[in-house]
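stage 2 :: seqdesign
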């Protein structure tokens, strides 16, 4: 990976705030980026690779491949394969997006807006969460896409992620992170600070057994673990560790917690929470929401994206911040690392009363910033 720092903005981004960013999980196609927005679209961009970005103005290498129009703001998007993605949002519909043809297919809907949508490569299941207090489990096959199960939740789903978050692959450098716990899981964060953890391997087995005409086992659909968040205020994001050991959660009150799946006493003793994204403004200690999290797929460090327009990089094992980037023009709404670990995409322009405090070029304007981060995100030697 190059040591030269590269940063540029994607030309012609969405005009309304960005709700989600997702790079292709295939490292050989890590230059493909999906963007969901409140402007009622999902966009597929082809970004400059590292060699192109190093040799010329990388923003000129960016190509908008497709724009998928929706009937209402889109709240999330995820990859299924190199040619298929899924989206959900305010219009309550789950859509499959054909990334080759630009066509969309509505496969079903919730009764309230869809908050998150995720695909588990390990279980081959698409899962949508909603403010209607349900999860819906889908077969995402383009030909036979269908609803497999609806699971009731005790409260509105606000955040969700799958573990491990990506298929086990290696990057261009021939390295890959060691998956310590390969059990496919779903982590759901709800209003009321509830966390439910589901075993997706049991879901997959039950679905296959049902198709084969074997007896149903309703117990598999119940949460494997039910927890209360150690954060005292409403959750903003959940992201699972690339090694499958646990997850990080963020809240509106400038805090992050690092949790582990293993329920043994020795492992649970390792969980912790910390304050972040806080500063003194006009003599007042101001606390900002941590709007997004993203784990580096190779180094296992993670980025936090705040309402203070700051990106910080954290080493969860050393329990310390290893990098903080200069303030962006306006509050941050989403972020994602590329699957080869070379890039971090950050969305600024989140509508917030604090926009006026963050002076920069056109504060409040929606922008997608692409930054090379391989070296920045390496854990520091002890």
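stage 2 :: out
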């Amino acid at each position: 990976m190059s040591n030269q720092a590269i940063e540029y903005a994607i030309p012609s981004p969405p005009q309304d705030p960005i709700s989600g960013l997702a790079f292709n999980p295939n490292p050989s196609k890590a230059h493909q980026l999906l963007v969901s927005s409140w402007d009622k679209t999902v966009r597929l961009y082809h970004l400059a690779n590292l060699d192109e970005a190093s040799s010329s103005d990388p923003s000129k290498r960016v190509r908008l491949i497709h724009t998928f129009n929706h009937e209402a703001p889109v709240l999330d998007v995820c990859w299924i394969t190199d040619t298929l993605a899924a989206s959900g949002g305010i219009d309550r519909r789950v859509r499959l997006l054909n990334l080759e043809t630009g066509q969309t297919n509505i496969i079903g809907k919730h009764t309230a807006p869809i908050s998150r949508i995720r695909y588990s490569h390990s279980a081959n299941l698409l899962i949508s969460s909603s403010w209607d207090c349900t999860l819906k489990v889908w077969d995402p096959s383009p030909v036979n896409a269908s609803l497999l199960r609806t699971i009731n939740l005790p409260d509105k789903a606000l955040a969700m992620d799958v573990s491990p978050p990506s298929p086990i692959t290696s990057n261009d450098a021939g390295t890959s992170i060691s998956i310590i716990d390969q059990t496919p899981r779903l982590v759901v964060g709800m209003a009321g600070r509830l966390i439910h953890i589901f075993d997706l391997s049991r879901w997959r087995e039950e679905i296959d057994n049902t198709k084969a005409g074997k007896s149903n086992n309703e117990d598999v659909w119940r949460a494997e673990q039910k927890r209360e968040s150690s954060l005292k205020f409403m959750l903003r994001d959940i992201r699972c560790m690339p090694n499958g050991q646990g997850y990080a959660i963020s809240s509106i009150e400038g805090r992050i917690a690092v949790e582990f799946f293993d329920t043994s006493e020795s492992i649970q003793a390792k969980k912790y929470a910390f304050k972040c994204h806080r500063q003194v403004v006009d003599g007042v200690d101001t606390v900002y929401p941590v709007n997004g999290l993203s784990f580096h797929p190779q180094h296992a460090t993670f980025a936090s994206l705040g309402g203070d327009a700051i990106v910080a990089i954290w080493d969860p094992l050393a329990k310390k911040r290893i990098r903080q980037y200069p303030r962006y023009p306006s509050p941050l709404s989403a972020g994602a690392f590329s699957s080869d670990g070379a890039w971090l995409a950050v969305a600024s322009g989140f509508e917030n009363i604090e926009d006026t405090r963050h002076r920069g070029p056109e504060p409040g304007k929606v922008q997608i910033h692409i930054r090379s981060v391989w070296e920045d995100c390496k854990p520091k030697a002890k």
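stage 3 :: structure notes
- The chain has a mean pLDDT of 91.
- The chain has three helices and 30 strands.
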